[in-house]
């Protein structure tokens, strides 16, 4: 059986809306209300956050609080790397989605010679850079960091040298060069993008399972197809942003987008994906109880988390049966 370790990341400095730092605790409240022992079953560790910097003036308009984001990302990467080197499965519960860049860096640092695939279940493509961002919020940049992609052909901003110093340092966490190749990235339910992101998706033929195709095929078939697309990858990381869900199930996230997954679809998708022995890390992000009523998003997210965890724990049995 997989030895899961929960990594709690309460950093929300990459988000544009406050409150995602409370997402982990909202999950714990949902767990308690369900009378589940989930958070007693697994060892956990917390990565230090720098959320107090949000009280300071931001100095980097095209990459907000990037100096502090860099510090947090280094800590996340180190924690994920150490967890994997101890032969444990890192299950990351994080605030905003910028934290995923640190997770990816940590996975690669622990698996330098292995090819990484990434499954990005999200309403957004999150592949901006300081050169292309319309908002400056760093939760729109984690894949730009992982892909080592400035996307200069779509440049709309002129970041200052200090911003670029920190940006380049972010891209070096976990080793020089890209941590991920575009052909090893698959999107699910991405439906709110800007032109620079669309350009990257077109240029690199990055697959995105949109609403109509997803509904026609169903979560199990889509999950199987995604895994087949990443068959050349040695290891796979699944990143689940709760804004992949349709807002009618809850608006408890910073950037909700209409026409998304149902909770049941998300459960079945994450279960199908996480059954694969190649999946080495699962992350859930962007739960914001400040924007919610009766902790609905966390309750729904906890159901999805339980499904993913069950599949992760079943990986060992599948591997043994295959052997």
UniProtKB/TrEMBL annotation:
Coiled coil: none annotated. Its cofactor is Mn(2+). Keywords: Arginine metabolism, Hydrolase, Manganese, Metal-binding. InterPro entries: Arginase (IPR014033), Ureohydrolase (IPR006035), Ureohydrolase_dom_sf (IPR023696). One of its GO terms (cellular component) is cytosol. It is an enzyme of class 3 (hydrolase). Pathway: Nitrogen metabolism; urea cycle; L-ornithine and urea from L-arginine: step 1/1. The keyword Metal-binding applies. Its EC number is 3.5.3.1. One of its GO terms (biological process) is arginine metabolic process. GO terms for molecular function: arginase activity; manganese ion binding. Gene3D superfamilies: Ureohydrolase domain. Belongs to the arginase family. This is Arginase. It comes from Adhaeribacter arboris.
């Amino acid at each position: 059986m997989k030895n899961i370790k929960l990594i709690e990341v309460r950093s929300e400095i990459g988000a544009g809306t406050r409150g995602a730092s409370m997402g982990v605790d909202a999950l714990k409240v949902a767990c308690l209300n369900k009378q589940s022992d989930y958070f007693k079953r697994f060892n956990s560790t917390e990565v230090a956050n720098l959320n107090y910097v949000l009280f300071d003036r931001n100095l980097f308009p095209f990459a907000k609080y990037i100096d502090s984001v860099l510090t947090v990302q280094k800590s996340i990467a180190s924690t994920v790397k150490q967890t994997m080197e101890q032969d444990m499965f890192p299950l990351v519960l994080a605030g905003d989605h910028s934290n995923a860049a640190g997770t990816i860096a940590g996975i690669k640092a622990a698996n330098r010679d292995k090819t990484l695939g990434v499954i990005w279940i999200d309403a957004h493509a999150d592949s901006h850079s300081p050169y292309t961002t319309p908002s400056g919020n760093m939760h729109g940049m984690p894949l730009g960091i992982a892909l080592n992609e400035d996307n200069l052909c779509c440049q709309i901003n002129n970041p200052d040298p200090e911003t670029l110093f920190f940006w380049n340092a972010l891209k070096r966490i976990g080793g020089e060069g890209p941590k991920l190749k575009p052909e090893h990235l698959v999107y699910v339910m991405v439906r709110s993008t800007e032109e620079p992101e669309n350009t990257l998706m077109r240029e690199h033929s990055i697959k995105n399972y949109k609403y109509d195709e997803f509904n026609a095929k169903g979560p199990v078939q889509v999950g199987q197809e995604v895994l087949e697309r990443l068959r050349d990858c040695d290891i796979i990381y699944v990143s689940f942003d709760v804004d992949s869900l349709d807002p009618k199930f809850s608006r408890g996230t910073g950037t909700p987008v209409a026409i998304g997954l149902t909770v049941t679809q998300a459960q079945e998708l994450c279960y199908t994906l996480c059954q694969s022995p190649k999946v080495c890390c699962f992350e859930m992000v962007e739960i914001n109880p400040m924007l919610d009523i009766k902790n609905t998003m966390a309750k729904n997210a906890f159901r999805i988390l339980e499904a993913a965890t069950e599949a992760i724990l079943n990986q060992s049995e599948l591997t043994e049966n295959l052997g």
